[in-house]
Amino acid sequence: MADYTVAGRTFRTQSDYKAALRDQAQIDAIKGKINMEQPGEVIRLAADLKAGKYQLTTLVGRDFKDEIQELAEKYRKQGYTKDSKVKLTKQQKKLSGSGKTSQKNKTKKVSLDDYDAKMQKEIKAVLKKKERNRKLIVVLCSIIALGCFGYYGIYYYTADKTQSDYNDLADLKGSTSLSSGAPGVTIHYTDEEEIELKVLEEYETLYNKNRRLIGWLKIEDTNIDYPVLQTTDNIYYLDHNFEQEYDKNGSLFLDAACDIVHRNTNLIIYGHHMRSGKMFGNLNKYSSESYYKEHPYIQFDTIYEKGTYQVMYVFRSKIYNEDEIVFKYYQFFDAVSEKEFDSNMQEMAAISLYDTGVRAGFGDELLTLSTCDNSEADGRFVVVAKRIE
Question: CA-to-CA distance for 5 and 3, rounded, in angstroms?
């Protein structure tokens, strides 16, 4: 079997291998043009990559994009911008300025006393104005700094409060404080169809607090331990919490097109990628195969039944234009045939970051977790799992 490996990435087909070679050649050309130690150049390159100036289409290209974005973010945190340049070292200054030393030594030093009284007054006025401007700038910078600290303080306070509220909700699992005692919940889908479903006792109190609750998602040894909600659109829970209050952390929610009773082939759950790590802020840790091996299972209970899923595919994708003919994971809810199901599995396997060895067949039930990814515009990070219990 041919070795289709480029930059540590192994490709299944010769066409993918050739595409990766083209990406690597383009990357080498890019690196030859910029100085990675110059913050401004790196930040400009990151912006160009995000804007799609360079067509890098394979995992090799995505790895390079991630590397540049991380380095650019590091420089930004240090206060650099796209116009920044690193100052020369003392040794470099000495070498670059050696030809000017004799001329500088010949320059006569000028003092204020060399000017007449009128000129001295004008010079002092200019210096006073510069000092006043300097102090004003210091004050403005201090105010901006305080504002930034205040913003981040409020941000993390809100995140901690949200997490505390969800911890309280987790404590209500199994509680009977708001249990109705009713034997079940009757759901009418049509005049002819009547389905009676019993809400699990564990979730009855939570369900009575918010009837939009449809389940609970938990991944052991992570902070992902949240209720999952659902409305008739995919907008409301982007910025509302379990208590129906405005909250920029939002909530985990099931796609409006999914049905936990007439079970879809694939249930899709969305959550924000919060910098604080809340919601799906840590989901992208699955980009590491070692992390997957430590967290291979996902627990997703609907309010009617429990379920355990095994992680199968992990990949990066994006939200595409409607007219683009490409695999769109966020439109895969049902497979009406084995051929259609297998086609979707092949698409996911082709872009998966690594091979878990887990496979699914027609008739299996899938769970997809989706969050934002800043590696590209409208990027998404996705984890797909197969139900095993």
Answer: 6
Grouping H, G, I as helix, E, B as strand and the rest as coil, residue 97 is coil
Q: Which two tokens stand for residue 383?
A: 């984890």
The answer for residues whose C-beta is within 8 angstroms of residue 303's C-beta and 6 or more apart is 199, 200, 203, 207, 213, 214, 215, 260
Measure the CA–CA gap between 274 and 371, rounded to whole angstroms: 9
Q: Which residue has the tokens 């910078």?
A: 141
Closest CA to 342 of 363, 326, 356, 357: 363
Within 8 A by CB and 6+ apart from 343, the residues are: none
Report field, pTM of the whole predicted structure over 0.70: no
Length of the chain: 389
Q: Name the DSSP class of 375.
A: T
Q: How far apart are CA 341 and CA 360, in angstroms?
A: 9
Among residues 34, 57, 58, which one has the least CA distance to residue 46?
34
Query: What is the per-residue pLDDT for 127?
Result: 77
Pick out the chain residues at pLDDT < 50. 88, 92-93, 95-107, 182-185
User: What's the pLDDT score for residue 145?
Assistant: 77
Radius of gyration of the chain (CA): 29
pLDDT at 96: 41
What distance lies between CA 364 and its chain's CA centroid? Answer: 28
What is the per-residue pLDDT for 15?
80
Give the separation between CA 160 and CA 80, rounded to whole angstroms: 30
The half-sphere exposure of 92 on its side-chain side, counting CA atoms within 13 A, is 4
Backbone φ and ψ of 355, nearest 5°: -95, 115
Is 267 strand, coil or helix?
strand
CA angle 269, 275, 280 (to 5 degrees): 15
| 8 Å CB contact between 68 and 49 | yes
Angle made by CA atoms 33, 34, 40, in degrees to the nearest 5: 145
Question: CA–CA distance from 188 to each of 191, 213, 271 (Å)?
Answer: 7, 18, 29
Tell the residue number behind the tokens 């909250």, with chain if given. Answer: 247
List of residues 6+ apart from 85 with CB closer than 8 A: 38, 39, 40
Instruction: Find the distance separating the first CA and the last CA of the chain, reported in whole Å.
Output: 37
User: Looking at residue 101, what is its pLDDT?
Assistant: 42
